[in-house]
Design brief:
Strand order of the largest sheet: 6-7-8-3-9-10
Radius of gyration: 17 Å
Distance between the termini: 34 Å
Strand content: 25-35%
Oligomer: single chain
Shape: globular
Order of helices and strands: EEEHEEHEHHHHEHHEHEEH
Number of helices: 10
Number of strands: 10
Structural class: alpha/beta
Length: 232
């Protein structure tokens, strides 16, 4: 059953249209990867689901309810949490304090400091480190952990691999199956196609704000994905 339904949305930044008639569904418990080149509309899609942007046309429905006009801070208690591009942790707080910020909604569920540290062991050893002194990988793990602390039903991950070394990216992605195993639905936006295909049940490719390819990773050839990704 669909937990998230994005129904024929148009999204604009002023006079510039970033998304054209886009429809996407995400079923409860699945991991959907949205891939595409820079400027394809991936981050705009996540911001629209999170409530930062609002569609000019179309609807965003969560658990059957139209939330298109709902403010971003009202969506978090419903169970929608965004890990933004660039991590955006608080530099003056420790990593643990950053995690605790994510738990302010006090939604009940599996995720707490103990379970986040079990999922990202490197954070347990560095919990007292200030955000400003944390490495890119530590910041990314903290950003994801902070989102999990709100016990989301839907976790939105924006460009997990951005600016990170390949080994760090692999370690971060290795945690996603455990997150999904706890019943969290995941929508991950990514330019690193290989990593996205490893964790996704389905993949959507965007090009210039439109959906150009959709399917299960095992059913899509590399040639199909490359053609859709680059618009060939």
């Amino acid at each position: 059953m669909a937990l998230l339904e994005v129904d024929a949305i148009d999204v604009h930044y002023g006079d510039f249209q970033a998304i054209y008639g886009l429809s996407i569904t995400v079923d409860e418990g699945e991991t959907l990867a949205v891939i595409g080149a820079n400027g394809a509309g991936k981050s705009t899609l996540l911001k629209t689901i999170a409530g930062i942007n609002r569609p000019r046309v179309g609807e965003v429905r969560f658990d059957g309810a139209n939330i298109s006009g709902l403010a971003a801070h009202r969506r978090v208690p419903l169970g929608i949490s965004l890990t933004p591009e660039g991590r955006r942790i608080f530099p003056s707080l420790t990593l643990e304090e950053n995690l605790l910020v994510g738990g302010h909604t006090k939604r009940p569920g599996y995720w707490n400091l103990t379970t986040v540290y079990e999922t990202f062991p490197l954070l347990a050893d560095r919990r007292s480190r200030l955000g400003v002194h944390a490495s890119g990988g530590e910041q990314q793990a903290t950003a994801i952990g902070r989102a999990l602390m709100s016990n989301p039903r839907l976790l939105l991950l924006d460009e997990v691999s951005l600016g990170l070394a390949p080994i760090v990216v692999e370690n971060i992605y290795a945690a996603l199956p455990n997150i999904s195993a706890q019943g969290t639905t995941v929508l991950v936006v990514e330019q690193d196609v290989n990593q996205a295909l490893k964790v996704a049940n389905r993949v959507h490719c965007l090009l210039e704000g439109r959906s150009v390819l959709e399917g299960k990773p095992a059913e899509l050839s590399r040639e199909q994905i490359a053609s859709a990704y680059f618009g060939i």
